[in-house]
Input
Amino acid sequence: MTVAPHTGQIVESGGPAPAEPIEPIEPARHFTWRSEDDTAAFAGRLAAQPQLANAFVTLHGDLGAGKTTLVRHLLRALGVQGRIKSPTYAVVEPHDAPGLAPHPMVWHFDFYRFDDPREWEDAGFRDIFANPGLKLAEWPEKAAALTPPADLAIHIEAIDDTTRTITVHAHTADGRQMLQGL
Output
């Protein structure tokens, strides 16, 4: 069986043909951090976004770009006390964030050591993502397409020892609302 070429509407509808849907351009904002104080201020603004309580935020950048530093400032802004460890070896660190209502759980992932995206599935992370709470993921590309779409994707590029350029992309409606609040 062959497919006939499409030649348009067979029956006139009386009006003009509907326009082809246009894909919306993914919203993004750009920032420059000139010090760790700028990182902390950004984290404070992000922590103030109500949609963050059940968001998935991915963090992108080279080693040493400042992904974990941003997470530490964000967790402090959300009321996390005590030592905040990088999950590089543990892969995930849970935190109770009193400033994050109504779901105070934060899951900080670092997929850097993943060799195969199936490790995400084997580790049982699907259950974590199915429950409420904030999920933060460093090196999300190592989990490939197994994670849900990120509400926000934060790309950090180190310019020198103190300066970072940041691009934040919103991939969902909640992400777009958070991006407007930054």
